[in-house]
């Protein structure tokens, strides 16, 4: 990941020298940088390694220009997406869990008698035995 580190160092330098003007430009370049960081990470099934890499780079970027709040917001949003995808893939691997992507106002006849669980609900709900709730069908 040496070429990615060079990109990070270059971006940190730009942030420190305030070469990037405006929140939109800062957010866009932060997202592009984090996309390259994620794509250069070796593929593993461990989201923890990816989260720690993004966190470390995010801390460098935020420390470079703490006044630019868009940078921190993009980093936190990317971390949220990584965690959400990890939870979704874990639920799929377990099998039978339904993750809702629709709003709560949807007609329940579309899903039958199975309750749909959001990613946030899955994270907080466990069976008394300590396992995640599974689909009853």
TrEMBL record:
Family annotation (InterPro entries): eIF2B_beta_subunit (IPR051855), IF-2B-related (IPR000649), NagB/RpiA_transferase-like (IPR037171)
Top-level taxon of origin: Eukaryota
Swiss-Prot/TrEMBL keywords: Cytoplasm, Initiation factor, Protein biosynthesis
UniProt KW ATP-binding keyword: no
Coiled coil (residue ranges): none
Transmembrane segments annotated in the record for this chain: none
MF-aspect GO terms: guanyl-nucleotide exchange factor activity; translation initiation factor activity
UniProt keyword Cytoplasm present: yes
CC terms in the record's Gene Ontology section: eukaryotic translation initiation factor 2B complex
Family, per entry: Belongs to the eIF-2B alpha/beta/delta subunits family.
Protein name: Translation initiation factor eIF2B subunit beta
Organism: Asparagus officinalis (Garden asparagus)
Lineage per the UniProt record: Eukaryota, Viridiplantae, Streptophyta, Embryophyta, Tracheophyta
